[in-house]
Design goal:
The protein is built from seven helices and ten strands. By secondary structure, the chain is an alpha/beta fold. Strand 1 and strand 2 form a beta hairpin.
């Protein structure tokens, strides 16, 4: 195992998931992963993994090459490697997503919420639809002042059978999302359902658009802030967690 210096705040450390960089990638920062949009960096004396979740969350079907996507088959193994790598102290999640596949989004959110290491998320631009569970999955959540989050019911495209079983399936899927959000944020189930079923805000849809301050006011997100605020909060969680472990051992 290689030792990495942690004295420089701007120093990048090598990605623990990959081998030696290929010849054509030698000019890139060794901490960057072009296919997943993630990197490692040192903040003070801690190593933080920064993961970006952008565009549309891709599910079991491939989306167009013209679409920016986050692929769950890339993100989930990466999160597992972060959990098992002792060199990584915490995870920072940057979100700018329009939503996407419900099951894929919930799967990623479940892995993030189950990490034993400190986690912080920040919504930049947008954290819409299934992006909401992803944002609240971290131990602390932030949202940029100019960002927004769209809360709406589960929707589908294509052929749908107009039978009671179909609507029951949608209801149960919406309950899965609502329960996860309620368990990992400060919003109540009743209030979240009101936001989901709001008919007075969106012209051709049902739901609610929340800006940064509104998302905090509703209890979905902890704080309005910047990336710097999120990094500092993550550092404090890391330090606090290690102090607790030291006290327990004593």
């Amino acid at each position: 195992m290689k030792n990495h210096s942690r004295n420089d705040e701007d120093e990048f450390v090598r990605n623990p998931c990959g081998g030696e960089p290929e010849q054509e990638q030698t000019e890139q920062s060794p901490g960057q992963l072009p296919d997943t949009g993630s990197m490692l960096f040192a903040h003070r004396d801690k190593v933080i993994h920064c993961l970006t979740i952008i565009g549309q969350i891709e599910g079991h079907y491939l989306l167009s090459d013209r679409s920016k996507t986050t692929k769950y088959e890339h993100i989930i193994p990466l999160l597992v490697s972060i959990a098992e790598d002792e060199r990584i102290d915490g995870l920072l999640v940057l979100l700018n997503t329009v939503g996407g596949d419900v099951e894929a989004g919930l799967a990623i959110a479940e892995v993030i919420s189950g990490l034993q290491k400190p986690t912080v998320s920040i919504v930049l631009g947008g954290g819409h639809s299934i992006g909401i569970p992803l944002a609240v999955a971290a131990r602390r959540s932030f949202i940029a002042k100019s960002a927004s989050m769209t809360v709406h019911p589960v929707r589908t495209t294509g052929l749908t059978l107009g039978v009671p079983q179909t609507f029951e399936y949608f209801r149960r899927m919406q309950d899965r999302i609502t329960n996860f959000v309620v368990e990992h944020s400060n919003v109540t189930s009743a209030r979240y359902s009101e936001l989901v079923l709001n008919t007075g805000e969106l012209v051709t849809d049902v739901g609610t658009i929340l800006d940064g301050a509104d998302a905090v006011r509703e209890g979905l997100i902890d704080s309005v802030g910047t990336v710097a605020d999120a990094v500092e909060a993550l550092y404090e969680l890391i330090v606090t967690g290690k102090r607790t472990q030291t006290t327990d051992h004593e």
